[in-house]
């Protein structure tokens, strides 16, 4: 294709509210050596889109600093980490047979080449993302899912939410037959955790509230704990022998309340701070019980490969809450920030 064409893209011009999102006509990016050009079929929204836009990540030593996912970002920046689409062009050194393949892009920018590399950047924050008609990506980060029965919307829902969830499950070493506690279970990552933990053969207790409880149960939770009540008391009643692994995107007060619920050798995995980043807990509950608190940011290349295997077999079925056209990006982000939906919000460029 002729990459001197223009495309529509939504980018942020600085940190701020929805008003910093602008719809612009920009050049279609040309794939560099080792890259492919993907025509975006669907792009999914994540909390990271809101936090990057707001600059809400803070920096080491300065929690209040305006920052992207891993530090200052260059503006204008096209947002959007989660892309499903088709390869339409390749750069030098890339197999031409990829053209026409249906793909999902791994949005992580890694610190090294290996299979267990750590993500240190993110498409849509540290490089331009998928709120656009086209996006470039390194060829080794696109995964061929041509045969998957999942829709583009469902495939686009996978990278950040399900990648983060599978990273938590893998780092927490959740095994078949164990009991998992999932916080924030109706959110994007939370619902993914419920589905993935259930698919792994774990007993899943999920924390949710109000009208979302039925949807969380439908996603595969064996028991739902009402956030409005006493969480510890309800968890003890549902799992009298304790929890093997907590999969937590809320943190805040939940960590201190929840650590005593872990069994001997239990793992508390944290991948978010929806309930607050200042945490206090009784450290005796940690060392006396050989418990572990594990931080988990997204996924490794190995985890993402496992996720794509699940996608090809449709072993998980992402729930789509709403779809918007690209020009309604601000409205889509506001819908996301209200947290009244269950499942993923997507846009169609």
CATH class of the largest domain: Alpha Beta
Domains counted in the coordinates: how many? 2
If helices are DSSP runs of H or I spanning 4 or more residues, what is the number of helices? 10
Encode the helix/strand succession as letters. Answer: EEEHEEEEEEEHHEHEHEHEHEHEHEHE
Strand content: 25-35%
**Structural class by sheet pairing and helices:** alpha/beta
How do the helices and strands line up, and which of them pair or pack?
Layout: E1 6-12, E2 21-27, E3 35-44, H1 47-54, E4 77-78, E5 82-90, E6 102-105, E7 108-110, E8 119-122, E9 134-138, E10 142-144, H2 152-156, H3 158-171, E11 179-182, H4 188-199, E12 203-208, H5 213-218, E13 223-226, H6 231-238, E14 243-248, H7 253-258, E15 262-270, H8 284-287, E16 292-295, H9 301-313, E17 320-325, H10 329-338, E18 344-348
Parallel strand pairs: 11-12, 11-14, 12-13, 14-15, 15-16, 17-18
Antiparallel strand pairs: 1-2, 1-4, 3-5, 3-9, 3-18, 5-6, 6-10, 7-8
Helix pairs in contact: 3-4, 3-9
